[in-house]
């Protein structure tokens, strides 16, 4: 079937020629390119379609590639196939925009996704949409608000990282806990006054890091620092100094002027801050559009922790979990993993004698890696059937 081109007020062709910056923002891997080209030859088998796949769908603001793929395919993360259904019209899946209508066409046991049935359909976008940037319009893979806070928090560090970072020492009114709008004071480590890093004015505030342990070996994989909020540097720390002429006096040490700590403004709080909390520079905000894909190598990971301020035993859908595999193990953002609930042991009391049995593991859902450290990664739980527990498995998607 011939792929159908689409003429639109803001065409995909124009989007693709928008420059290298946009192409870097929405990467397409060689593997996905190859998959799409292969599938584009004849479409996907009807067996790969979702049971209630719609005949047509108009992309709406707020949609995600994961959601749209889930409408058409049994496995949402496999949208290179969805993209490849009409490679010429959908040259890059990251550049699908609100206002486009997608059509599902079936023929000879295969299905294609097209953007037009007549071959000359014009997709009209509103003037307000045309005034926005391509980057703002392009559909993200998933709902970014679910993970955006986690792109800056949590932080996995080495044991000494926070110990050597600048620290809060007091609030201006001598209160123990610091709140939004407060003026607070901070100092750097011994011998290194806190003066800021270049033009950096915003800092994240963290509390003592807790060890993240491998649930199988109990080995410490890293230290997860608790994110508390943000502060803005108003004035740098002034080191201790001697007044003019004091250096010639015998007791020069007694004439030292006390250091003046840095002054900061509490800009944002997730949890109340207090003296001793540590400061790290605020990273530059980045727009990330993740490309879901299966790992090339076999993965056998375990849930190391549930990232939540509550004492919850079970993880839920749209929750973030950490796993005991990181960059050193080949993990990368966008990897999709199957969640497997570990089978529990139970006592069989139905026979002639009691006997302990091991129930089999059960497939539980899907998660996507979105942030990777050396030995730890953070995964967003996309869909599950039952709660996630520390120690549960993550494997290559089935």
Walk me through this protein's architecture.
The chain has 398 residues and is mainly beta. The protein has three domains: 7-141, no CATH class; 152-281, no CATH class; 300-395, Beta Barrel (Elongation Factor Tu (Ef-tu), domain 3), CATH 2.40.30. 11% of the residues lie in helices and 31% in strands. The chain is built from seven helices and 23 strands. It has helices at 12-16, 20-25, 30-40, 65-72, 79-84, 127-130, 134-137, and strands at 7-8, 44-45, 56-58, 101-107, 110-114, 122-123, 155-157, 167-171, 177-178, 183-187, 202-213, 220-235, 262-269, 273-274, 278-281, 300-306, 320-323, 336-341, 345-348, 355-358, 362-372, 377-384, 393-395. The strands form six sheets. Strands 7, 8, 10, 11, 12, 13 and 15 form a seven-stranded antiparallel beta sheet that branches. A six-stranded antiparallel β-barrel has the order 16-17-22-21-18-23. The protein has a four-stranded antiparallel beta sheet with strand order 2-5-4-3. A hairpin with a 2-residue loop joins β4 and β5 (110-114). The longest helix has 11 residues, at 30-40. The chain is globular and about 90 Å long. The two termini are 30 Å apart. Mean pLDDT is 76; it is low at 1-26 and 118-136.
């Amino acid at each position: 079937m011939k792929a159908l081109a689409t003429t639109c007020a803001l065409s995909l062709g124009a989007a693709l020629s928008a420059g290298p910056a946009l192409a870097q923002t929405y990467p397409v891997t060689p593997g996905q390119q190859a998959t799409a080209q292969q599938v584009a030859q004849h479409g996907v088998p009807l067996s790969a379609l979702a049971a209630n796949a719609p005949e047509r769908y108009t992309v709406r603001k707020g949609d995600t590639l994961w959601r749209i793929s889930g409408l058409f395919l049994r496995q949402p993360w496999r949208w290179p196939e969805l993209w490849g259904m009409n490679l010429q019209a959908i040259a890059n899946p990251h550049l699908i925009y609100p206002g486009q209508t997608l059509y599902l066409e079936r023929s000879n046991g295969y299905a294609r996704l097209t953007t037009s049935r007549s071959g000359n359909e014009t997709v009209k976008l509103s003037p307000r949409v045309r005034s926005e940037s391509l980057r703002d319009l392009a559909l993200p893979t998933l709902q970014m608000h679910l993970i955006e806070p986690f792109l800056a928090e949590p932080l996995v560090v080495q044991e000494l990282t926070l110990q050597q970072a600048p620290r809060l020492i007091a609030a201006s009114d001598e209160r123990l806990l610091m709140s939004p709008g407060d003026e607070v004071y901070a100092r750097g480590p011994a011998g290194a006054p806190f003066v800021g890093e270049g033009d950096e004015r915003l800092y994240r505030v963290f509390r003592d890091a807790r060890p993240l342990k491998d649930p199988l070996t109990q080995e410490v994989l890293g230290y997860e620092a608790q994110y508390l909020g943000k502060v803005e540097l108003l004035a740098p720390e002034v080191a201790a100094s001697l007044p003019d002429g004091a250096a010639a006096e015998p007791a020069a040490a007694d004439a030292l002027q006390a250091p003046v700590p840095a002054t900061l403004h509490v800009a944002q709080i997730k949890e109340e801050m207090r003296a001793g909390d540590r400061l790290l520079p605020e990273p530059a905000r980045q727009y990330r559009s993740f490309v879901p894909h299966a790992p090339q190598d076999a993965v056998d990971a375990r849930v190391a922790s549930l990232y939540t301020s509550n004492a919850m035993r079970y993880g839920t859908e749209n929750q973030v979990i950490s796993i005991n595999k990181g960059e050193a193990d080949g993990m990368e953002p966008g990897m999709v993993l199957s969640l497997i609930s570990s089978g529990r042991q139970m006592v069989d009391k139905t026979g002639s004698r009691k006997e302990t049995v091991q129930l089999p593991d059960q497939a539980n859902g899907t998660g996507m890696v979105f942030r990777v450290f050396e030995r730890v990664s953070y995964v967003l739980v996309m869909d599950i059937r039952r709660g996630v527990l520390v120690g549960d498995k993550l494997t290559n998607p089935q």
